[in-house]
Specification:
365 residues; 10 helices
């Protein structure tokens, strides 16, 4: 097997691959440091207001040490009062000072404690809240798609899945890079940090309950190991894998992949076709690019097409899917069309979304 270059899945220099934390998309909340900073500023404002109140009414206070109250004594009294320490060495003795303590200083003390306790509770409950979100996510996740590798191929595959109507909540990305997973989280996608060749990492992505698995690693040997592990964990999921070298495609199929895409040879054929016929290359590029020009879709046969010849349909049908058999448009068995058939056709991109049960088969590379 050829091993072309380094792979993101094999990186282990500065990545913590022994742990595979699940990273849920962050809710729209402020950063913890910003929250703490705001509450600290609020606490300082409360302290400053209390110091000013005591300082302006310092004549109504008595210090047991020297009798008078200066600015430092005001700061000291405000600090021990707001923190409910209350040593009793500085006390209000006039009626106005005591009334001020009841009406102003006491509410400020309560506000100060709310700020302090709120910050503490926020820190203590953050882990519990995240654990609750994670448990709820695990309990609700069913028939999802696991995308292994979030590079160029993985992103293109994900965009194509989105075009078919798949929601972001139904995709889990697995990648060894924390930065890559943070990027996926920023896009509203759940990610798992870790080496996908390890079964415990795939189990954290709930791969055993997935409906389809997309393997978009950069090295072919990594793709084979991931495919073997994924097929062992989930016997019924549809596995689609990408390889660089065409000679490694049979290994992927033997490992359990239902479909194997050879990226290097496909790009090479497109290059050669463009050299021989630039127009043909343009048409192929139009088919590959999603959402513009021509699209390749899979859709069910409609009632008006039942019993007709493949060439009599409104769309340009290239293949007919009958059961588990894929029949070419020129295969005599493809016609007449049956109600249970599905056709693969070339349509205009604007009309490819008309049918609710159609599936786009093209993707941007």
């Amino acid at each position: 097997m050829k091993l072309p270059g380094d792979d993101a899945m094999a990186r282990a220099a500065d990545e913590h691959l022994n742990t595979a934390p699940v990273k849920l998309p962050k809710q729209v909340v402020e950063r913890p440091l910003r929250q703490v900073g705001k509450r600290l500023m609020m606490a300082m404002v409360v302290l400053g207001v209390t110091v000013l109140i005591v300082w302006f009414d310092r004549a109504g206070y008595h210090d047991n040490s020297d009798g008078g109250v200066d600015l430092l004594d005001s700061v000291y009294y405000a600090t021990v009062t707001l923190s409910t320490t209350g040593y009793g060495d500085i006390v209000p003795y006039s009626d106005s000072a005591r009334l001020t303590n009841v009406l102003l200083v006491t509410p400020l003390r309560v506000l100060f404690l709310i700020i302090l306790v709120g910050t503490t509770l926020e820190v203590l409950t953050e882990r519990t809240r995240e654990e609750f979100r994670l448990n709820r996510w695990r309990s609700q996740l069913r028939d999802h798609t696991v995308l292994i590798g979030y590079g160029t191929k993985g992103r293109s595959a994900m965009q194509t899945l989105f075009a078919t109507g798949l929601k972001k909540e139904q995709i889990v990305v697995v990648d060894p890079s924390f930065k890559v997973i943070e990027t996926a989280n920023a896009e509203g996608i759940t990610g798992v940090v870790g080496d996908a060749t390890r079964s415990d990492v795939l189990l954290r992505a709930e791969l055993q309950r997935a409906r389809q698995i997309v393997i978009a690693t950069q090295r072919d040997d990594t793709a084979v190991l991931v495919t073997l592990t994924a097929r062992q964990l989930n016997r019924g999921a549809k596995i689609v894998a990408a390889v660089r070298e065409e000679e490694n495609a049979p290994l992927l199929r033997q490992s359990g992949a239902d479909a194997v895409i050879t990226s290097a040879s496909a790009a090479g054929r497109l290059l050669g076709l463009s050299v021989l016929s630039p127009s043909a290359g343009t048409v192929m590029e139009d088919l590959i690019q999603q959402g513009s020009g021509l699209d390749l879709i899979e859709r069910p046969v409609i009632k008006s097409e039942v019993g007709k010849n493949v060439r009599e349909t409104d769309d340009l049908v290239v293949s007919v899917l009958r059961g588990h058999r894929l029949l070419g448009y020129d295969d005599p068995k493809a016609s007449p069309l049956q109600i249970t058939d599905r056709v693969i056709a070339i349509v205009r991109a604007s009309s490819s979304s008309d049918g609710d049960d159609s599936v786009r088969l093209t993707s941007a590379e």
